[in-house]
Write a structure and sequence with these properties.
- The complex is a heterotetramer of chains A (about 100), B (about 525), C (about 725) and D (about 500).
- Chain B has about 525 residues and is mainly α.
- In chain B, about 70% of the residues lie in helices and about 5% in strands.
- In chain B, the strands form two sheets. A two-stranded antiparallel sheet of chain B has the order 1-2. Chain B has a two-stranded antiparallel ribbon with strand order 3-4.
- Chain C is mainly alpha-helical and about 725 residues long.
- Chain C has helices spanning about 5-25, 35-60, 95-115, 125-140, 145-165, 170-200, 205-215, 225-240, 250-255, 260-270, 270-280, 285-310, 315-335, 340-365, 380, 385-395, 405-420, 425-450, 455-460, 470-480, 495-500, 525-530, 535, 555-585, 595-600, 600-610, 615-645, 645-655, 670-685, 690-710, and strands at about 65-75, 80-90, 540, 550.
- Chain C is globular.
- In chain D, strand 3 and strand 4 (about 280-285) form a beta hairpin.
- In chain D, helix 14 runs parallel beside helix 18.
- The chains are: A mainly alpha (about 100), B mainly alpha (about 525), C mainly alpha (about 725), D mainly alpha (about 500).
- Chains in contact: A-C, A-D, B-C, B-D, C-D.
- Chains B and C meet through helix 6, helix 11, helix 16, helix 18 and helix 20 of B and strand 1, helix 5, helix 6, helix 27 and helix 28 of C.
Chain lengths: ~100, ~525, ~725, ~500
């Protein structure tokens, strides 16, 4: 029986974070990019909770995680609205094609 | 007299005028012109007042006690730095024999140039506002004794001049304006670096006994004020005084303009409107030489003495090179511009002589060149107004068509070639006599006398091509001078003749200062020798 | 009459013409007869000079009257000490005689011009310029210091410029004026350098103070060589102004001016100023300097004389003759015959002015025809002009009973003595050859103009004798060409007061060993000086009790004495030979001048083309200057502006600003910099692709780099 | 922690409460008033006046609010914060005025309530950013600012570039804050606290795993760096500045940047400080070499900003790069790590607020009339609109840093601070950079004054109120250029951060 320790949590969170960035960078669909961001945020959440639990730091970490969840939701709502708007004006949600503003 | 801050008044009066003009409605052009004329007129009167109360015996240069009309108070004070300690900048104005001729010149030329601006009809408001700003900048440079303040005024001229050339200039005005701007800016950057370097090398003792870094030019001239480790301190064996001197000199030399930094001048002159050419040649060029005399010489007497041969040599190059280039010009105004380069060479040569005769000659030449060249540019402007061309070969025989105009031209030309009885002669003579007396630059002086031949050559040739001969049919319509043009030419002519006949009036004015300068340079030779051991 | 009165008169003499100038210049347009004021002023000036001359010579003949006031003064300055640049008068016999001559000729020329210039549209302006000239010339003569002399020197230059170019509408006149001024400036540069040298050594400009210091042993750079150089530099001014070889080229061209101007400026007074200058600085000229001056003088006497032989323009002949005669005077000064040089200066001024005014009369009569080959037979039409012209010509040729005979003879005598003392016989030889040539070309001129058949009948018919105002000056001047005014003895000039009492060779300030050997001071016993009347004039009292300083050694006096008669007869002989030849060629036509010209074609062409001086100068100096000015202007535009100052960068920057960024100019270091900054900008732009994912990749990437860097810190 | 203490804490956050109240009021009024929304901006201004009053009140205070345990609070009330709140409020005043005048904003009239509410959301976020001393609050306030600004950047829904800016902003911002959050989580893990004061005392006493600490520090900096648009976290800036409405661009470039810097200074100073020496130099805990970090960061930030700006044709984009360059200059003040550096930053911000707001205002006025921000379309503007031209000229000259404008003083103080810290090389690099900057500013001036208008002139009048506002912005730029002692006095009294 493997004892699940802090290291495991951190490992999972790092993977999640990397996957998040990877998703943000590689996905063409704006919605998928946003999901990448969500992954990154959740990686941090795992960190917070894991640290709070294993480090006996009190409730701060868990509270933080709750805040982040709420914020992530808000951000997702706003981002989706923006994506919707993008779809209206550009008729696409492919982030590669949205590059009229550049040098 | 009392404590009336006359120097501040004379300097900032144009700013007041500028604000009034900015508040006027756009179509009140005559009012704007009149305001400018009145303001510059008051400046002339104030300058006359300064002259009237001027004490001829006080030398100035490095001794704050012998400056006159001093105004000094703390402008900015910031404390709380580690090794810098306290930063203080003084509002420090004062004049001595070097600056009072320049103040007079600035006032007179500004007044005349206002008249020359009378026909400006494009964006009049902007023109006169900028013009007055420019006048403040010029005046400020000549009265400031705090290096920081000096630099502020120096920079203050830059933008108005840029716009005055760039907006109201000729067909290639953009090119000329940007060229002027970039050159002058380059010069100012050099100057700024040295200002900062000097700042961190000199400390002034305050009333309470503490020592603070200072921008005070006069403190920079006293070796006791140098910080031993300062990068520009002579006590520091690894000091950068030489490099700083070169940088400062180039910064000023660009304004003179000294070969090979002169090429902005012909372009700027050709494109600038008449009045601005008058200002440019009449006053702005003097700032370069004034700066060298005011700062380079007394702050770096050691390096100056080492570099004197080079200053004279570049003066010689300016004289001969400018004259030869002038000879080949086809554009009247460009020719006059090159003649300016040539004439400023005399100033450099005179400065290099390091004796009273030569330096007096240089300062007098600054004043005389100011008036003579201003007159020449007005003359070019008059003909350009009428004929809309400056091509020398397009003219001929104007003496028949415009005899009075030709008379003034002849006077100005003769003054420019140093004809005795007119002001240019005595200053050139002094420059040569001074230069010859100094062994190091004797040969250069003798070679430079070629300049008076070449000068006569191109001037008389020009006179012949434009004024003598027969009038081409198309110029038979040209009218002779009107009242406004008389008003510009007559005062300048009077000054030119007066100073030609009675140069002592100006020489006495600067005498004490020039002597103080020479004495300072000689004393410092031994002083710096004992400090650095060379 | 006190000395002070004399000074007052001198001040009036100096400034009256200036007042006239200003008056006529400013009011000439309004008042048609303003010129009369100027003429009146000149008459007044002349009277004043007459008063001055009389009083000075009568009361103060042995005294130099000096008056000065400080113009510019410096006290206790470094290097120089106390300096006072003074304005002042020096009234010695030299200057009062000279000022009298100047005023007299000027007055006559003014009067002559009333008729000659009548109808010119700038009539008044002309008189104004004459007034300016008279002022400047008086200044040269009266001043007591070298700087003021230089000042007036320049002023006469400019008035000469104005007057030569008076008819500015024809192209040649301003050209000639310009040439005159510029060629003079070349000499002036030399003179100015000399002045600098003097000032640098003596810290004063005043002649007397300079000579006094020099006599006490102060020399420029403490060397006699530099004293020679200083003297020669000052002499450069004279070369220019007196049109000496090699700067003589301006004078013939200056004949473009009105003829009375030529008479006044380019024959009698201004060109003589050079000789006057050498007279003034004579005490400081070393032997070496004098020798070079003599050589220059000899060349200037010879070359123009050969040119004058073939010229056909009446004024050009006279102009070359003037140069030649001035060369004579300079040569005379060079060989030490100071008195005769000055004497010749005065006599020449009168008869040459007479000749020029006479030629003016001819030209006036011939309606501005100047070519002598187109004249002839005018004797009948212009009897008075002919008579005066003849007298002046005889004087110029050196025929007895004329003033010219006396002065020229004196010069030849001086060169003869010099030759016998030093062995340089070339100088007298040149002198005699020139005397012959002079007589020849003058009579060629007279014969072609006044004798024979008229060649232009139409103009001849309209010719008539000049009015009184033109005739009177001719008569006065020709009368002054007679010996009687100068000496009672027509063959010995020393007998008169002029050379006997008034004009004396000044004592030298040059160190003994730098002088001509015959000018070295040897102390003469008291008694001997008494015995010899001839040398007593040369003796000047010295303050020392030891004896009297003699300017010339006994040998020189001796040689002069011996040279007197040989020189006189020889000169008379050569002059007559010249006249006879002229008659043979042109009057009797025994020998065809044309044929001779063909036979010696190269020489003829050389002479006719004025030895090609103008062409040579044009091809060398003028071309060189113009070429270098063009090259430098190109250099300035292209190299200095383009590369050194990176104007190309400015252009490029502007074109870049205006959005027309092109790659036309890509060279020079500065351009490379501009290119580099542009390149950086371009590279940076690559990153700003507009794709948000690229940005994030870049952020993550740079984050990794930062972390890596931090780890290695 | 009793209720009294909470009330006392509320007392300490009066400015924030005022802003929140206004925010709520705005929402309510929006609902009540229906279609007539003209009153909203005036309510906003009233709220701002209240907030500014309370901010000024805080100038003399120094205390902590919402203390969790043992004197470690979440919010700091000190002069430093008060100053930056002042800057934010100042910018907000003008931005709201701009919004009233902006045609862009007027076009979507029916959503004005939303607009002002979101602006107040941003202001609230900034206030908390400025005064937060706890990582939780820092993150939350940062997100509050970000979320509001995402929407505002895309406020004009119909415009393509608005939406694009908005999308880029949200993605970029999301990733940045995600990275920052990850950093915060790590820092929390190694220190066990989110309170900056606590972390400070912890790292001073116990040993911390070095690399992890650096990792967390840098990751947290990503979030701040993105707010202040420091290179290489700046990529969003040009695109968003160009795409967003001008009012929002102006707000982002001044207020948001000020809040970001306030956060940066507080974060660095509270977290890492060991002691401040007598001359005002900060001794930091030497786990992370912030000095070197800031030196390099400032060099690349200003260099890149300036060089990239050389190539811009769009005025807003050019100003965006210029604001990056200015961030570089400001980072120089950070690199000094001293009180003098802080004074320099504060002075710079005061000056920067005037000139940048002014520049954007002129750009907006022109865009209102001619509908373009292209620099080439400014040709001849100086002739037909001399007043606007001269004002823009003054702002640009000041941005260049030429005397006698206030911009010069800002730069000068930074240079002096650098020299005082003996960082001469850095000063020279900065000087060279300002020379480069001259070229792109002067290009605008050239278009304004030296060229003739190409197609039609700018026939419009600047209204009196707009003129007055312009003068209010331009005059201080000149006046402070000549007499800047007040600036220095304000700056000196504003550097007090609680605890040090």
């Amino acid at each position: 029986m493997i004892h699940i320790g802090l290291g495991h949590f951190l490992f999972v969170s790092s993977i999640l974070f990397s996957l998040g960035i990877f998703g943000v960078v590689t996905r063409k669909n704006a919605v998928m990019v946003l999901m990448g961001i969500e992954l990154m945020l959740n990686a941090s959440n795992i960190n917070f909770i894991a640290f709070a639990k294993y480090g006996n730091f009190g409730l701060q970490g868990q509270v933080m995680a709750l805040f982040v969840i709420v914020l992530a939701a808000a951000e997702a709502a706003i981002a989706l609205a923006i994506v919707l708007n993008i779809y209206k004006t550009f008729s696409t949600v492919n982030v590669d094609e949205i590059d009229t503003l550049k040098d | 007299m009392g404590n009336f801050p006359i120097l501040s008044f004379i300097t900032f009066l144009p700013i007041v005028g500028m604000i009034i003009i900015l508040c006027l409605p756009k179509n009140q052009t005559l009012v704007m012109k009149s305001i400018t004329l009145v303001i510059t007129g008051i400046q002339v009167i104030l300058a006359g007042f300064l002259l009237y109360h001027y004490n001829y015996g006080m030398g100035g240069i490095n001794n704050p006690a012998t400056f006159q009309y001093i105004e000094k108070f703390r402008w900015i004070e910031i404390s709380g730095f580690s090794w810098i300690g306290k930063i203080k900048i003084d509002y420090f104005l004062g004049i001595d024999g070097l600056s009072i001729p320049m103040v007079l010149l600035t006032a007179i030329i500004s007044f005349v140039a206002t008249l020359a601006s009378w026909k400006i009809d494009k964006a009049v408001k902007g023109y006169f506002a900028l013009y007055l700003l420019l006048v403040t900048g010029m005046m400020g440079v000549f009265v400031a004794l705090d290096f920081f303040l000096f630099y502020v005024f120096w920079e203050l001229m830059l933008l108005p001049m840029y716009f005055l050339i760039g907006i109201w200039g000729g067909p290639r005005r953009e090119y000329a304006a940007i060229k002027f701007f970039l050159y002058t800016l380059l010069g100012s950057v050099f100057i700024l670096l040295v200002v900062i370097g000097l700042y961190f090398s000199t400390m002034e003792t305050m009333i309470d006994g503490t020592k603070v870094f200072t921008f005070n030019m006069l403190s920079m001239m006293d070796t006791h004020n140098f910080v031993a480790t300062g990068i520009l301190s002579p006590m520091n064996p690894h000091n950068l005084r030489f490099i700083a001197y070169i940088a400062l000199f180039i910064g000023f030399a660009i304004k003179i303009p000294m070969f090979p930094f002169h090429t902005w001048l012909p372009d700027a002159h050709v494109e600038a409107p008449t009045a601005i050419s008058v200002i440019l040649a009449g006053v702005l060029l003097k700032m370069g030489t004034y700066g060298i005399l005011r700062v380079c010489y007394p702050v770096f007497p050691d390096i100056t003495q080492k570099m004197i041969w080079w200053i004279a040599a570049f003066g010689m190059i300016n004289i001969i090179y400018g004259a030869l280039c002038a000879m080949a010009q086809k554009d009247f105004k460009r020719l006059i511009a090159y003649s300016s380069i040539s004439h400023m060479g005399y100033v450099m040569l005179g400065m290099a002589s390091l004796n009273s005769i030569g330096i007096s000659g240089a300062v007098l030449q600054m004043f005389n060149h100011g008036t003579i060249t201003a007159m020449l540019f007005i003359i070019v402007g008059i003909i350009y107004d009428r004929a809309h061309t400056r091509e020398i070969d397009a003219f001929g025989g104007l003496a028949t068509q415009m005899p009075i105009y030709t008379g003034f031209t002849t006077l100005a030309f003769f003054a420019a070639i140093g004809l005795p009885g007119l002001s240019g002669f005595i200053s050139e003579t002094f420059v040569f006599l001074g230069g010859f007396a100094f062994e190091t630059i004797r040969v250069i002086t003798v070679i430079s006398t070629l300049g008076i031949l070449l000068g006569a050559g191109y001037m008389l040739w020009t006179l012949q091509r434009i004024y003598l001969g027969t009038v081409p049919e198309k110029w038979k319509v040209l009218k002779d001078l009107d009242f406004r043009e008389y008003a510009m030419l007559v005062p300048l002519s009077i000054i030119i003749i007066f100073l030609g006949v009675y140069p002592s009036s100006m020489l006495n004015l600067m005498n004490s200062s020039v002597n103080a300068m020479v004495k300072f340079m000689m004393d410092s030779k031994a002083l710096y020798g004992s400090i650095t051991g060379f | 009459m006190t000395e002070f009165n004399l000074i007052q008169i001198a001040i009036a003499i100096l400034f009256l013409p200036l007042v006239g100038f200003a008056f006529v210049l400013f009011l000439g347009k309004k008042i048609k007869s303003a010129y009369l004021v100027e003429v009146g002023i000149l008459i007044l000036t002349f009277l004043l000079t007459a008063v001055l001359l009389f009083n000075k010579l009568y009361w103060f003949a042995d005294k130099n009257i000096v008056s000065e006031f400080s113009w510019i003064s410096y006290k206790n300055i470094a290097v120089f000490g106390n300096i006072s640049i003074d304005l002042g008068f020096l009234l010695d016999n030299l200057s009062v005689i000279m000022i009298f001559t100047v005023a007299l000729i000027s007055m006559l020329v003014h009067i002559f011009s009333i008729a000659y210039m009548a109808g010119d549209k700038l009539y008044n302006r002309y008189f104004a310029y004459l007034g300016l000239f008279t002022f400047s010339m008086s200044g040269i003569v009266l001043t007591h210091n070298i700087l003021m002399m230089y000042v007036f020197w320049e002023l006469v230059g400019i008035s000469s410029y104005l007057l030569i170019g008076f008819w500015y509408e024809k192209k040649s006149a301003p050209d000639a004026g310009k040439k005159a001024f510029l060629v003079n400036r070349i000499g002036d540069i030399g003179m100015f350098s000399g002045i600098m040298m003097l000032f640098n050594t003596y810290h004063t400009f005043t002649f007397e103070k300079i000579f006094a210091q020099m006599a006490s042993g102060t020399l420029p750079f403490n060397s006699e060589f530099w004293l020679t150089v200083t003297g020669l530099l000052l002499f450069c001014g004279a070369i220019g102004k007196s049109a000496q070889f090699p700067l003589h080229v301006w004078l013939p061209d200056a004949m473009e001016g009105p003829t009375p101007v030529s008479a006044l400026i380019h024959a009698a007074t201004m060109v003589a100023a050079g000789v006057f200058l050498v007279c003034r600085i004579f005490p400081m000229l070393t032997g070496d300097a004098l020798f070079i001056i003599a050589v220059i003088g000899a060349l200037s006497a010879l070359i123009p004389a050969t040119i004058a032989l073939t010229q056909n323009d009446i004024k050009k002949v006279l102009a070359y003759s003037t140069v030649s005669q001035l060369g004579y005077m300079v040569m005379a000064l060079g060989v030490g015959a100071y008195k005769f040089a000055f004497f010749h200066l005065i006599t020449h001024a009168f008869f040459k002015a007479c000749l020029f005014l006479g030629s003016g009369s001819v030209i006036h009569a011939m309606h501005h025809e100047q070519d002598i080959t187109k004249m002839g037979g005018l004797k009948k039409k212009l009897p008075l002009t002919y008579a005066t012209f003849l007298i002046a010509s005889l004087a110029l040729s050196g025929i007895p009973l004329t003033s010219g005979f006396l002065s020229k003879d004196g010069i030849l005598q001086g060169t003869f003595a010099f030759g016998s003392l030093t062995g340089y016989w070339l100088f007298p030889a040149v002198g005699f050859v020139v005397a012959m040539l002079t007589a020849f070309y003058m009579f060629r001129l007279i014969i072609l103009t006044f004798h024979g058949e008229p060649k232009n009948k139409e103009k001849y018919d309209h010719a008539h004798e000049s009015p009184f105002v033109m005739a009177m000056p001719l008569v006065v001047l020709s009368a002054l060409s007679i010996f009687i005014w100068y000496t009672p003895n027509p063959i010995n000039a020393d007998a008169g007061l002029f050379l006997g009492k008034w004009i004396k060779t000044p004592s030298l300030s040059v160190p003994q060993n730098a002088r001509y050997s015959f000018m070295k001071t040897d102390l003469v016993p008291e008694g001997k000086a008494e015995n010899n009347r001839d040398i007593s004039n040369e003796v000047k009292k010295e303050g020392t009790a030891e004896g009297k300083e003699v300017i010339y050694s006994e040998a020189y006096t001796e040689a002069m004495h011996h040279a007197h008669y040989p020189a006189m007869f020889l000169s008379l002989f050569v002059a007559l030979t010249g006249i006879v030849f002229a008659f043979v060629f042109y009057y009797w036509k025994k020998i065809s001048a044309d044929k001779l010209a063909r036979d010696i074609k190269p020489f003829y062409k050389l002479s006719f083309n004025k030895w090609y001086f103008d062409e040579i100068y044009n091809a060398t100096f003028v071309t060189f200057t113009m070429l270098s000015s063009r090259v430098l202007a190109w250099f300035d535009n292209t190299i200095v502006d383009g590369i050194v100052n990176g104007a190309a960068t400015v252009t490029r920057m502007i074109s870049f600003f205006t959005g027309r960024f092109d790659n036309i100019v890509v060279d020079g270091l500065v351009n490379l910099m501009a290119y580099l900054s542009g390149f950086i900008g371009l590279v940076l732009r690559r990153f700003q692709t507009g794709r948000v994912q690229t940005y994030i990749v870049l952020v993550v990437f740079s984050l990794v780099i930062i972390l890596y860097l931090f780890k290695t810190f | 922690m009793n209720i009294n203490y909470l009330l006392n804490s509320l007392y300490l956050i009066k400015p924030e409460i005022a802003i929140s109240a206004t925010l709520v009021l705005l929402v309510l009024m929006d609902l009540i008033m229906g279609s007539n929304k003209k009153l909203l901006p005036y309510i906003a201004i009233a709220g701002l006046i209240a907030a500014s009053y309370f901010s000024v009140e805080q100038f003399g205070m120094s205390s902590l609010a919402f203390v969790s345990k043992a004197n470690k609070g979440m919010i700091v009330t000190d002069p430093f914060g008060a100053f930056f709140k002042g800057i934010v409020v100042f910018a907000s005043f003008f931005v709201i005025y701009f919004s009233i005048k902006s045609d862009e904003i007027k076009a979507s009239f029916e959503r004005h309530g939303e607009y002002y509410t979101l602006i107040f959301g941003m202001i609230l976020g900034m206030f908390f950013m400025i005064s937060a001393s706890d990582l939780i609050l820092i993150y939350l306030s940062l997100e509050l600012v970000s979320l509001s600004s995402y929407v505002l950047a895309g406020f004009t829904k119909t415009s393509q570039r608005n939406s694009e800016a908005s999308l880029k902003y949200v993605i970029y911002g999301g990733v940045s804050s995600g990275i920052m959050l990850f950093g915060i989580s790590i820092l929390y893990g190694i220190t066990g606290s989110t309170n900056l004061y606590e972390i400070n005392s912890l790292i001073q006493t116990s040993s911390i795993p070095n690399l992890t600490f650096i990792l967390s520090g840098i990751l947290i900096f990503v979030g701040i760096g993105y707010k202040i648009s420091a290179v290489p976290f700046h990529f969003w800036t040009p695109d968003v500045y160009e795409g967003a409405p001008i009012t929002i661009t102006a707000f982002l470039s001044v207020a948001s940047k000020a809040a970001g810097f306030a956060l940066l200074i507080r974060f660095i100073k509270i977290t890492f400080i060991k002691s401040v020496d007598s001359a005002g130099y900060w001794q930091l805990v030497d786990i992370i070499d912030w000095k070197t970090f800031f030196i390099f960061l400032s060099i690349i930030t200003m260099t890149l900003g300036n060089f990239a700006a050389l190539w811009q044709d769009n005025m807003k984009r050019m100003l965006a790069y210029s604001s990056i360059a200015h961030a570089g200059y400001l980072l120089l003040g950070m690199a000094v790590l001293s009180n003098q550096g802080m004074i320099a930053i504060i002075i710079y911000f005061m000056v920067y607020a005037f000139m940048n707001l002014g520049a954007f205002f002129v750009v907006m006025l022109i865009a209102n009339k001619i509908g373009t921000e292209d620099i080439d379309d400014y040709k001849g503007l100086g002739y037909s609109q001399p007043f606007l031209g001269v004002c823009l000229g003054i702002f640009l000259v000041s941005l260049t840093g030429l005397p006698p404008t206030a911009g010069f003083i800002g730069k000068l103080y930074i240079f002096i601070a650098l020299v005082d810290a003996k960082m001469i090389t850095l000063a020279v690099i900065a000087l060279l950079n300002s020379v480069v900057s001259l070229y792109y500013y002067i290009r605008v001036l050239r278009n304004l004054f030296l060229t003739r208008p190409e197609n039609g002139t700018f026939e419009f009048k600047v209204s009196f109120s707009n003129g007055l506002v312009l003068v209010l912005l331009a005059a201080p730029v000149i006046i402070f250029g000549l007499y800047f002692t007040p600036l220095i006095n304000i700056a000196k009294s504003s550097i007090q951060i609680l605890g040090f």
